Amino acid sequence: MVKILLLGLSGDSGCQVAALGLHDKLVKILTANELVYAPTLIDAKEIPEKIDVAIIEGGLRTEHEIEVIKKIRSNSSIMIAIGSCACFGGIPGLANLKEGKILLNKIYVEQKGTALGQLPLVDKLLPEQVPIHNSVKVDYTIPGCPPEVGDIANTLVSLLSGNQPPINMTDVCEKCPRERVGTYANKLIRIHEDVSDPQRCLLEQGFLCMGPATMGGCGAPCPSAGMPCDGCRGPTIQNSDQGLTMLDALTSLISQVKDGFDLSQNVGVLYRYTYPDSNLVKLFKGGEKNE
User: Fold this and answer.
1) Which pLDDT value is given to residue 44?
2) Between residues 161 and 255, which one has the greater pLDDT?
């Protein structure tokens, strides 16, 4: 019987809720194994000393969370990062574009309606939000915001059966049903604007669709429904930096855009989920990320 831990850092719980979407598969997993720690599901006060599989959601933002994750890692045989916050830093990682103290004052002191302009009592904050592999070794990742239920099932079932989980080698475009013709619009289009051709590639029409730079496996539901891929599954296996890969894919589009593209304004699109884990950040800091 395998002992399983399920924990959300930084107050996250959405990816754990996604795991509940396994339904009968989850029941079979929990029946054959033991859930020893999962604050959202069971009343367990202490982190167990023996954990076979630790599933961690959320990025690291406080010193306390680093202490917790290190304790779990030392007690675990396998650690899985689930969701884009745990894998890459996620959307909260865009806060790294500003200094932490500036953000706290902006939100809790300068905004109207705050309680006497006082900062909340919180654990000591880290300078930045970071993915968990910055502090501990991660054995497997299940990206997504939230992760695909199929990915969660395949990873858990494979590991609990003694096998290696499958690795997706595609990008989102591979499963996108939209037609690509090789020419691009001469302006960028925002997501609230209408699609001129409901059958054609959104990127070619001028939308910043992250499909070419994003790991596949989701079935391309967003572009299929008329919404650009926002990159929640992170970079492909072949390309470690999602934003730089997307810039390369945008070369043909940008060369024809007369206005509307500004890298400083679009960084939140190119690195919406992966900014803390990007090669761009590593370059700025002049050092390697910890493993």
Assistant:
1) 80
2) 161
Distance (Å, whole) CA 177 – CA 252: 21
Helices (H), the chain: 14-19, 24-32, 63-75, 84-88, 100-105, 149-160, 221-224, 242-249, 251-254, 263-270, 279-285
Number of other CB atoms surrounding residue 284 within 10 Å: 9
Q: Is the pLDDT of residue 250 over 60?
A: yes
| Cα–Cα distance, 86 to 144 (Å, whole number) | 10
The residues spanned by each domain of the chain are 3-94+125-160, 172-285
User: Could you tell me if 242 and 271 are in contact, meaning their C-beta atoms sit under 8 angstroms apart?
Assistant: yes
CB 235 within 8 A of CB 274: yes
Closest by alpha carbon to 197, among 211, 214, 183?
A: 183
Amino acid at 91: I
Per-residue CA distances from 77 to 55, 97, 122, 141, 177 (Å): 11, 35, 31, 15, 41
Flag whether pLDDT at 291 surpasses 50: no
Q: What is the mean pLDDT of residues 251-278?
A: 75
Of 3.30.365.10, 3.40.50.700, 3.40.640.10, 3.40.50.12280, the CATH number of 3-94+125-160 is 3.40.50.700
pTM of this prediction?
Answer: 0.88
Three-class SS state of 50: coil
pLDDT grade, residue 39 (50/70/90)?
A: confident
Mean pLDDT of the chain: 87
